[in-house]
Every structure is written in C-alpha cells, then in structure tokens.
Amino acid sequence: MLIYHMCKVDEWVEAEKFGVYPGSSQDRADGFTHFSTAHQIRVTAAKHRTGQDGLVLLSVEADVLGAALKWEPSRDGQLFPHLYGELEVSHVVRIDLLSLDAAGLHIFPVGLSDNLDGEDDA
What we know:
The protein is α+β, with helices and mostly antiparallel strands. It is built from three helices and nine strands. The longest helix has 10 residues, at about 10-20.
C-alpha cells in the first residue's frame, strides 16, 4: 500500500543531498512525519495546503517503513500513517510535482484515490 506526503520542493531537494528527509517544520514540531492514504490525501491537501505552490507529492510503500510507521486516529477518527523518524530518500518510489487549479487546489496524478480496494496506481 502506498502512502503519501506533501512537502516543499526545496525541502525535498535538501533531503536528496543528505539521503534522508526529516519532515517539514510542522512535522518536526509534532514529533512525526504526517502521511495520508490515497483516500485521505486530497482532503489533507485542501485543509492544510490550499494555494501553496511549489510542492511535491512523495509516494512511499508503507511496508518498508517498519515499526517506525504508526497508524493513529486523527481527523474524524480516521487512522492516519505517521512516521516516527526520518524518511530515507531511497524509500520514496515516486515524486510528483503538484500544480494548482484555478481554485488553488492541487492537481494529483491520474489514478490517485480512484481504486476503492485500498490499492492505488499512483
């Protein structure tokens, strides 16, 4: 199962230099890196990142994160994936630059959130 994290392009470029992504400043303040499932990412983006340009969407296979990944209740009692520790750049299987539509909402890769069986093809 893929999980997703949005970050600023410059944060990701910095992570690529060092081989690890420590999370955004908000993630570090919270003590974990916020991820979303394919079914959660659009609402997460609209709630926290509307109008923000210069973002990338990181796709990570949840299984490779091991015990550092915890599924914890958040918005509306939904379980969200939270990574306690740094994300190794090598664990990111796909990086997509996110554009904005006229309403300031992010345009996600085709296929993201389309499958309802928990799998996705993003």
